[in-house]
Amino acid sequence: MDAQPGDYLKFFTGQSKARVVAVPSSEFIRSYAEEGRGVSQYPLNLTTEEKQLLWKQLDEEMMKAPHLTFNLLKTNCAMMCMLMIENALIREHVDFKDMPEEMALNNGDLLRHCSSHAPWSQFVYMIFYGAVSDEFFETEYRMSPNMMVEVMRGAVIASNDTTSVRPLLTGSHRQLTAQAAPWSASPITPTLFFSIILLLVLVITIGEWCFGWHKLAYITDVILLMLQTLTGIVVLYASVFANLFGNRWNWYLIPFNPLPILCWIGFHKKSEFWRIYLVYSVILLVFLVITPFSSQLDFPHQLLTLLLLTRTISGYLFGRKQNKA
């Protein structure tokens, strides 16, 4: 994928384009070594003719302009490698056997496993994963770099008539550059961060009712509404218009969408505006109730929803109090 600033934005909207390029092995290995990442070489158990077809396929792909829609699902580096190997097979196919237990998980849980070393990346990915997190793709489309070797070790190449079977990988692997250090998760995880923010919001809300911190509570509401709106616009565009990762529906459109700010702009001067807080509070409560039933919904996002719910309930109760007065 092209690495221009605009292309990163396209990646997060599922519209970036990619192609196959040739890179000298020494340059490839050096770039990984500089980042502290390890590289190992595994020999494929292909016939001479199949190796020639694989090289031909790669050469033909290099001659094409960027045409592959590159995203986290279904068109990523690991998946493309696996499909090119399979396309080079002659009257044969790859049969995946003895796979790690994680490959039996649905898409959302598999993503959590593969991104467990990077909780903030996982947090962002899960926002955009949508309904496909509850599904189960074919093995080729569930490949990730850190799972690929383990999956391929147990795979075999079988003839279409099942008369011959041989391992996909053969011989021993060779380490080209060592892993500098194991992955270490950030000490400030999304769960910890949003727990602290939720605690602060609770303190501000208590201060609003007990000590008259109305201005501080108002500033908090403005910040939360702006962040909620920004997130809602991105999720709405990525899920509905950009069709990011092939989404058909995204559960986060329930708590995060532009409707609250539109309601505020259009009706906040109305005397009965405080009733809208109750409507949105009910919506947030419904979202929290359904969270155990989807593989897309995570605890940090529940904390975010509780942040909004705390302030919408407070807004409703404060408006009701003023109305009675």
- Helical/strand content category: mainly alpha
Strand order of the largest sheet: 4-5-6
Major sheet size, sense and barrel closure: 3 strands, antiparallel
Distance between the termini: 61 Å
Average pLDDT figure? 89
Please provide a written account of the structure.
- The protein contains twelve helices and seven strands.
- It is mainly alpha-helical and 325 residues long.
- The strands form three sheets. Strands 4-5-6 form a three-stranded antiparallel β-sheet. A two-stranded antiparallel ribbon has the order 1-3. A two-stranded antiparallel sheet has the order 2-7.
- Helix 8 runs antiparallel to helix 9, helix 8 runs parallel beside helix 12 and helix 11 packs antiparallel against helix 12.
- 23% of the residues are buried.
Outline the secondary-structure elements.
Elements: H1 5-11, E1 16-18, H2 25-34, E2 39-41, H3 48-62, E3 68-70, H4 77-87, E4 92-96, H5 107-114, H6 119-128, H7 145-153, E5 155-159, E6 165-167, E7 174-177, H8 190-211, H9 214-241, H10 259-267, H11 274-290, H12 299-324
Antiparallel strand pairs: 1-3, 2-7, 4-5, 5-6
Helix pairs in contact: 8-9, 8-12, 11-12
What structural keywords apply?
325 residues, mainly alpha, three-stranded antiparallel sheet, two-stranded antiparallel sheet, 12 helices, 7 strands
Q: Outline of this structure?
A:
The protein has helices at 5-11, 25-34, 48-62, 77-87, 107-114, 119-128, 145-153, 190-211, 214-241, 259-267, 274-290, 299-324, and strands at 16-18, 39-41, 68-70, 92-96, 155-159, 165-167, 174-177. It has 325 residues and is mainly α.
